[in-house]
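Q: For a teaching handout, I want to show students what a protein-ligand complex looks like in token form. Below are the inputs, and the small molecule is phosphoenolpyruvate. Please produce the holo structure.
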Amino acid sequence: MNKLIVANWKMNNDFSDIPEFVKYVKKNAKGEDNLVVCVPSVMIKDFADASKKLMSTGAENCHFAEKGAYTGEISAKMVKSAGASYVILGHSERRHIFNENDEMINKKIISALKEGLKVIFCVGETLDEKSKYKSVIKTQILGGLDGVADLDNVIIAYEPVWAIGTGKVATTADIVKVHGYIKNLVSENYGKNLPVLYGGSVKPSNSKEILALENVDGVLIGGASLKAEDYIAIAKSRN
Ligand code: PEP
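A: Here is the structure, written as tokens, with phosphoenolpyruvate included.
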């Protein structure tokens, strides 16, 4: 199976970017599968309708409650009914800018899985935490997956915070080492081999090398996913 190529548009591309993006993919990505594009919640329906079977649509976040007085928030059910099949949870920008903690992320993961969404669960250390990455990632993973009974729809994304949007990429040796650590941790605690994506300044010029690495099951891309040309160049570098 082809490795997973996940785009995270964050709060960048707009409604007006959807037609051109989809048109490019339709024309230039024949035979490419396992493409996921995570878009701002208001754009899920438009993206899903436009991209149909070409790409899967994902949300960038959702709330943990099924419904209620949470002004401005969006539930997993709403995300699903808008046409998303994936959701990114625990992204470092959610953790650091919006103060999401492991307990909150855990509740979100449980809620999203209950709705049948596939969860892209992000973990990763800051620059200050680099020397103790094992304990940071262990706390994030065990906290985020606490009480999660069925891990079949969980995909972990290892995103060192210092590599996100900075142009700095973890070395290939570090990626192999940390992914191996994550795979072992999950296997020891849950008896599963979960897919692990790498994220952090992935672009067409480095994706081939990263995607060829042992224990890398795909990539999560921010900046380089905004242009379809770059996104598809990364997808094609899988082969
Ligand atoms: C991200 O935000 O998940 C990400 C990996 O961003 P970038 O590719 O821009 O570093």
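A: Two things your students might notice: The CA atoms of residues 55 and 220 lie 15 Å apart. The chain has nine helices and eight strands.
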